Amino acid sequence: QRTFSSSIKYFNSAKKDLETILKSELEFEKNDAFSLEKYHQDWLASSGFQIINVEDKVLAELVKKNGNEIIHVYFDVVQITNSPFENEMDEQDDEQLIDENNEDGELRNLVNDTIANVNVVIENTTDNSAIGIDLLLSVSNNKFAINGLSHFEDATLALSETAEADSKRQLKYNGPPFSNLAEELQDSLTGYLTSRGIDEQLGDFIVAYSTVKENNEYISWLTNLKKFF
Question: What is the full DSSP assignment across 145-187?
């Protein structure tokens, strides 16, 4: 049985050990920190997209203004860098994804791949309406697949981050499985997104930026822990 004195020593020793390990890990990560490659910096500069960076937040946003349209691209950097999609799905879910979204096999290559959700909202500033587009991004080949589309009379609902707005969005009809649409409509919607810059180059940038931001957030997280302990 520990005495009061030995308990205090153990308490202080555990705190000291943690401080030492945190300091070492933080120094290593700072020395190993990296930024976007010049190729990705150049792409961003020419793409028209701007990064809306909020520290200590894993949901990233890119924004581009195009005439009377404002394009918002949202993605979770942790999901992209750390979460293989297949680990969150069982075999029944795999088959459901194939059956509901991809009778022709377009999404089949995404199953058992590392994929992430990317949400696009395109505002029409003329009447304040919006279209919300749920996309699946393959991290291995940077390709997008359309998973659903929703129309919003008021863009505020599409863009709001409140829990109430999110619940309302979940209840909206987002269309039939994309592969069930007429082929001409599928091609037209895909072409529309490509014309707005929703393409493989954007997918490549999202993956690269997510890696950088996640690393920066980790350094910030370690810094805050070190301050506390």
Answer: EEEEEEEESSHHHHH--SHHHHHHHHHS---S-GGGS-HHHHH
Full-model pTM: 0.83
Taking only the tens place, the pLDDT of each residue in 134-162 is 999 999 899 999 999 999 999 999 999 99
Do residues 101 and 87 make contact, with C-beta atoms less than 8 angstroms apart? Answer: no
Cα 143 off chain centre by: 14
For residue 11, is it within any domain?
Answer: no
Count of domains forming the chain: 1
Among the listed residues 215, 217, 216, 204, the one whose alpha carbon sits nearest the alpha carbon of residue 39: 204
SS3 222: helix
Residue 175 lies in a domain: yes
CATH at residue 114:
3.10.280.10
State which residues form the domain around 57. 37-212
